[in-house]
Amino acid sequence: MPDIPAPPEQRPHARVVSFRSRRDALTPARQRAWDAWWPSLGADAGTELLDTAAWFGRAAPLVVEIGSGTGTATAAMAAAEPERDVLAIEVYRPGLAQMFQYCAAAGVNNVRALRGDAVQVLTDQIAPASLAGVRVFFPDPWPKHKHHKRRLLQQPVVELIASRLLPGAVLHVATDHLPYAEQVAAVGDAEPMLRRIGFDSPSMMLLERPVTKFEGRAERAGSAITELLWGRIEE
Ligand SMILES: C[S@@+](CC[C@H](N)C(=O)[O-])C[C@H]1O[C@@H](n2cnc3c(N)ncnc32)[C@H](O)[C@@H]1O
Predict the structure, then answer these.
(1) pLDDT grade, residue 78 (50/70/90)?
(2) Number of folded domains that form the chain
(3) 18, 116, 157, 216: least buried by Cβ within 10 Å?
(4) What is the value of pTM for the model shown?
């Protein structure tokens, strides 16, 4: 399968994409998982508004996870919040295949996956003020200065995310990269649709995260994890 193409230049939020091009090949086991689950649980990102009630087979609060990676957190958190639906958005096909394996092993049936650029998906496929929450766990930090423009969580995308949250819904970010954490904190705090909240605040979605693959590596390397939470203001 070819790499996901960069969105057209005219897209307001996605001139520079936040993901890197990676090998797309699947191991035999992941290929089997892909073949088994992709047709019903996955779809390529498109331009039509999502009909989540039809796709999930019910009307339930929808949580979006941007950059789900291998889906460790996605599957574990979806298992712990069966009353909500979870939409994982990821460009990396082997990661999505692994997520299907975790979901199948955990008996989780409230996860669906869109393959593509989350910025495009939020722009075109998710209605304003429709989400119970958005999770962004360990977004690529793009540490080199010349790559900072690739960071996902900059003002236009944080504004886009905020606009998709229901009043009272939560944006939850975790990162092990302190300079990126400081940047995201400043951008989130400056966003008029958001206000910082604590972990003891009432939330429309689960806030307890399991340790993900990237987090495990970061902890072993001695990096501190920063967790940031904002609620969408009630208007
Ligand atoms: C560092 S990994 C973290 C994965 C996972 N959240 C975890 O904690 O293990 C970041 C992931 O975000 C994905 N990603 C980056 N930008 C994205 C975008 N615009 N849309 C969808 N996925 C994206 C990358 O493909 C990568 O798998």
Answers:
(1) very high
(2) 1
(3) 216
(4) 0.92
